[in-house]
Amino acid sequence: MKTYKFKTNINCSSCVAKVTPFMEKLDGINSWNVDTANQDKVLEVSSDSVSEGQIIDKVKEAGFKIEPAKKGFLDNLF
């Protein structure tokens, strides 16, 4: 399983509710969550088969900005 992290502008529960139907259309997502308390509004997605590009496309289709989160030094080690 692969975990992706993205910086977004999904900043409240209403925004999460708006993006939910788009995320549910992606077969192969095991789980997803948006940390709205984080200043970068981090979307974390775990999947066996969905690509980073497919996630980005769906979030943009829902009307939100999204970009891959920058990896820290420790993330590159593992």
Detailed description of the structure:
- The structure is a single chain.
- This protein has three helices and four strands.
- It is an alpha+beta fold.
- It has a single domain (2-72), classed as 2-Layer Sandwich (Alpha-Beta Plaits).
- The radius of gyration is 12 Å and the shape is globular.
- Strands 2-3-1-4 form a four-stranded antiparallel sheet, covered by helices on one side.
- Residues 1-67 form the HMA domain.
Strand content: 25-35%
Overall structural domain count: 1
Structural class: alpha+beta
Record field, number of beta strands: 4
Query: How would you state the average pLDDT, rounded?
Result: 91
How far apart are the termini?
14 Å
Order of helices and strands: EHEEHEH
Helical fraction equals: 25-40%
Biggest pleated-sheet summary: 4 strands, antiparallel
Count of alpha and pi helical runs: 3
Keywords:
78 residues, alpha+beta, Alpha-Beta Plaits, four-stranded antiparallel beta sheet, 3 helices, 35% helix, globular, HMA_dom
